[in-house]
Amino acid sequence: MMMPRRRTRSGGMPEQRPEQAPQRTPERTSERTSERTSEPAPERTRAGRAARGSFEYLDDRLPAAEGGSLLRKAFPDHWSFLLGELALYSLILLLLTGTFLTFFFHPGENEIRYDGSYLPLKGVLVTEAYASTLDISFDVRGGLLIRQIHHWAALVFVTAIGVHMLRVFFTGAFRKPREVNWVVGVTLFVLSVAEGFCGYSLPDDLLSGTGLRVVQSMLLSIPVAGTYLSFFLFGGEYPGEEIIPRLYVTHILLIPGLLVALVVLHLILVVYLKHTHWGGPGRTEKNAVGQPMVPQFAAKSAGLSMMVFGILTVLGGIVQINPVWNYGPYRTDQVSTGAQPDWYVGFLEGALRIMPPFETQLWGHTFMWNILIPTVILPGLLFLGLYLYPFLEKWVTGDSAEHHVCDRPRERPVRTALGVGGITFYAVLLLAGGNDIIAYGFGVSLNGLTWLFRVLLVLGPVAAFMVTKRLCLALRAHDLERVHEGEETGEVHQTVEGGLGEPRRPLSQRERYTLLMRQAPRPLEPARGNGTEDDEGDSGGDGRGRRVAARREQLRVTLSRWYYQDRID
User: Fold this and answer.
1) Where are the alpha helices (DSSP H) in 319-342?
2) What is the pLDDT, as a whole number, of residue 549?
3) What was the pLDDT predicted at 188?
């Protein structure tokens, strides 16, 4: 019979003390004492003294004693909290495989004639970067395996960070006191996307070169400064001779250093602020309940790391990815058909494809809105919204309390609906990035499909918001029905009068407690005496400032009512 696992608590309240071990009987103690003293072991004594002396030496110079409390830190036992671990182990594998690849990759843009093992390209003029990528794939022992593991690990790394952020968003784990950690997480996601694009562009093949051409077009669309930025990045007129070496330094040195530093900061904040946890008996806003780091969480995390390494190795060995030899070397006068970027930048490709052609002439400068909006303004607004959302929600709701219990997504219908609407917006753009492949595969009109994606981009997020909000409210009403009436049994009983009815089974105390332990926040109320009537006759700066403050407060109250207007209590 399996014994229940012991859970440790840490946080604002003192941790629960473990039960004291039963005292040994005097007879057993005396027997063991006699057994130990009958055969003295000086080696054990010397080893113990040496270990104690070594520990005291370290503790005098490092916080070794304080590290023992870290071994008993409480970690959540729910599977969703392992998404961050998945990203961490993918990053470790990226660093290991990337170190191997740097020994053989040459980021040069000088053209040479390829003289390697891949016969279809033998004698073709290629850059040193492309030739070294082919050498890694065909001439370095295990090179193709390591290169494909590296690429798969990059995809898993970015995906794990994205899904981890979704978990934090939908459960409200970004609220006080974790706003700074949310900002760190968004920055990690931005850097991981940039790191992935830099590595994706290094082989200098036809597919990655097409992506660099898009980057150059994006830079040129920026008014005034675009031309200077393009010349600086590429080292002259496109394609230049400096872009690959600069991307290489950025990819192996600058961004990895920032990623490692931010990961360390993120983990420090997690340890200091404690994890959030799901609601239930004994779980409050003032404690953190979970499994101790050693041995339970350490064993679980080690098992996950082995699974990540093993699965990514299998993928690298049997699932081909980024076959640059099929694309050929990059040439500025060629574009491969069906070119698709990795998923994390696919939304930019989709935005470019469905944006109508639109440009204006202002003050002697051409504003290419069909490039500027989808590649500069849209991602800028997207990530700005991610950075600011915790502070915007706090301002709208007026919630300044600390939170350590995760929200169930159905308990915050507006936040959940906003998240689903954002996912729908991104999914439409991602699908639009492959409109040519979809049109060819299904035999439909490319122009008609482009217009369909334009309509879906506007109406899809709105429809997703409304449907998700209704579903959250319905699920919450169903939870309350279960609390008050019990669980459906699926049985039909006939009464003595001939009627049919379904008996209900009462919920357990634990489940009732979990379903009912939720906050019921109310919309903000307008502050009394905050009207503008008294300020109408005051034309000075103070009166104008009070009117602006009153309008801002009115906007805040209106948004708060919209956020909380539909509740199931």
Assistant:
1) 324-327
2) 86
3) 96
Nearest to 355 by CA among 375, 380, 382, 374: 374
pTM, to two decimals: 0.85
For the packed helices 343-354 and 378-397, what is the interaxial angle rounded to 10 degrees? 110
Q: At residue 453, what are phi and psi to the nearest 5 degrees?
A: -65, -35
Per the structure block, which two tokens stand in for 5?
């696992």
- How far apart CA 144 and CA 150 sit, in angstroms, is 10
Check: CB of residue 472 under 8 Å from CB of residue 566: no
83-102 and 298-318 helices cross at what angle (nearest 10)?
A: 50
Sequence-distant (≥ 6) Cβ neighbours of residue 287 within 8 angstroms: 9, 10, 11, 12, 13, 404
For the chain, the first-to-last Cα distance in angstroms comes to 41
DSSP letter at 492 equals -
> Which domains are assigned to the chain?
75-388 (1.20.810.10), 408-487+505-521+544-569 (no CATH)
Burial 343-378 (b: 16+ CB within 10 A, else e): ebbbbbbbbbbbbeeeeeeeeeeebbbbbbbbbbeb
423-436 pLDDT per residue, tens: 999 999 999 999 99
Phi, psi of 287, deg, nearest 5: -145, 175
Q: What is the C-alpha to C-alpha distance for residues 347 and 378, in angstroms, rounded to an integer?
A: 10
Q: Chain-centre distance of CA 525, in angstroms? A: 35
Amino acid residing at 112:
I
pLDDT in tens, 474-493: 999 988 888 888 888 888 88
Dihedral (Cα; 510, 511, 514, 518), 10-degree rounding: -130
Region 172-200 average pLDDT? 95
- Residue-wise pLDDT tens digits, 489-528: 888 888 888 888 888 888 888 888 888 877 777 888 887 6
CA distances in angstroms from 409 to 86, 168, 218, 406, listed in the order given: 22, 11, 37, 9
Please give the Cα distance from 290 to 9 (Å, whole number).
6
